[in-house]
Amino acid sequence: MSGNVRIHDLPVSQRPRELLEAKGADSLSLANLIAILLRTGTKGRSAIHVAEELLAQFGSLQSLAQASLDDLRKVKGIGRDKAVTLKAAFKLACKMAEELRNETPVLDTPERIVELLRDESRDFQVENFQVLLLNTRRKLIRVERISQGTLDTILVHPREVFKAAIAASAAAIVIVHNHPSGDPTPSEADIKVTRDLIRAGQLLKIDVLDHIIIGRATEERRKDYVSLRELGYFYT
Fold first, then answer.
1. Which of 10, 19, 116, 154 has a CB 3.0–4.6 Å from the CB of 149, allowing a cystine?
2. Domains of the chain
3. Residue 172 pLDDT > 60, yes or no?
4. pLDDT for the residue 230
5. Mean pLDDT across the stretch 190-208?
């Protein structure tokens, strides 16, 4: 076979666009979804084959989203236009997550908090310590990024956390940070920071509702996060 292999060269039952139209986007594999963005393949290889190679080389959507244009173009079949299209698609996903923040949702469970921040957290390659500032109805005022650390270390001072909360007239806060390793298990430092912030919040009459650590789910660990409140650290 010579020339670029187009998706329309495939049998109808294997065409991602037709599958999406007939069965919905949720029914498509990651390779099929990426193939729709790529549109065409390269000599002797369809867009689906190129998409599968992208996933195999980068290992995860998170790594793929973090890849530079130059790194993407190292994959056979990915030129400038395809690399730019992929970067634009991932950036749109981040922008959508930002829009969801601005809809001031009620954040009264760890699941809702993680849903709000999950997509952005996947792009972080180092630990980022964020504070969700909430009003009396547990609705989001804004997300404040307090500090950014090295691969697995962040420095957090209660002064910086509550300075933002006081300025926003927040009634409560939720602490959130990510573990780039993917394992959300709290460290001793995480537990100490949590206890320090709880004590400071009590003095300032600002409730510290939870400290959530976002990682990645695995076959052994179904949830991609932990809640220190659920683990019992808020009751000691």
1. 154
2. 4-97 (1.10.150), 104-227 (3.40.140.10)
3. yes
4. 93
5. 93
Question: pLDDT at residue 217 above 50?
Answer: yes
The arithmetic mean of pLDDT across residues 22-45, rounded, is 86
Position 127, amino acid: E
Are 172 and 209 in contact by the 8 Å Cβ rule? The answer is yes
